[in-house]
Design brief:
This protein is α+β, with helices and mostly antiparallel strands and about 180 residues long. The protein contains 4 helices and 3 strands. It has a 3-stranded antiparallel beta sheet, with helices on one face. Helix 3 packs antiparallel against helix 4. The longest helix has 20 residues. It is flat. The termini are far apart. About 20% of the residues have low confidence.
């Protein structure tokens, strides 16, 4: 196979996302030096910056709604129930382990955020912060600060304890105009 044909095949495979992110000259250089790897990582064509279909789509112009406040209030009671349900179900029987708790904070925050977004509350940005720590004879103070509009922004909080750990779950709902 000639070098021109190899380059054409390489370009075609790269466009389809079936070849590594290395250029063909870099692959040839590695083969030439005898330092080839057993596996080569692949990168999708869509993962490369600047190769998205956004340029092909026409820009959609949205009209102003001139709405300065929410149509309905944020359901604080429902979100409190979601927080209690998710945190309790994930941490009820767990013992404190640093690595496990690090992963659990990510998991609990993602699950909580997904369940709140399922409520389909329009125009609210949802921020979920989970703190998990070992329960010993210590004291802790957790604080947060942000810009706030008292007429439309709100938060929910739930604290949890078992024999070996404590958890504090906060959800901030910030209205975006």
């Amino acid at each position: 196979m000639s070098d021109i044909m190899k380059d054409k095949v390489t370009r075609l495979l790269r466009k389809r996302g079936s070849i590594s992110s290395l250029g063909s000259h870099e692959v040839k250089a590695k083969e030439f030096l005898g330092k080839t790897k057993d596996s080569i990582s692949t990168v999708s064509y869509m993962d490369e910056p600047g190769h998205h279909d956004d340029a092909l789509r026409p820009a959609v112009q949205m009209e102003n709604t001139y709405r300065l406040g929410p149509a309905k209030c944020f359901p604080v009671g429902t979100v409190n129930n979601i927080l209690k349900d998710v945190v309790t179900s994930y941490l009820q029987e767990e013992k404190y382990e640093a690595e496990l708790c690090r992963q659990m904070t990510k998991t609990i925050s993602e699950v909580t955020k997904a369940r709140i977004k399922d409520l389909m509350i329009p125009r609210y940005k949802i921020i979920v912060i989970i703190n998990i720590g070992q329960l010993k004879k210590q004291s802790i103070q957790i604080g947060s600060r942000c810009l706030w509009d008292t007429t439309s922004d709100t938060f929910c909080s739930y604290s949890f304890k078992n024999r070996s750990l404590f958890a504090l779950a906060n959800v901030y709902a910030v209205y975006s105009e």
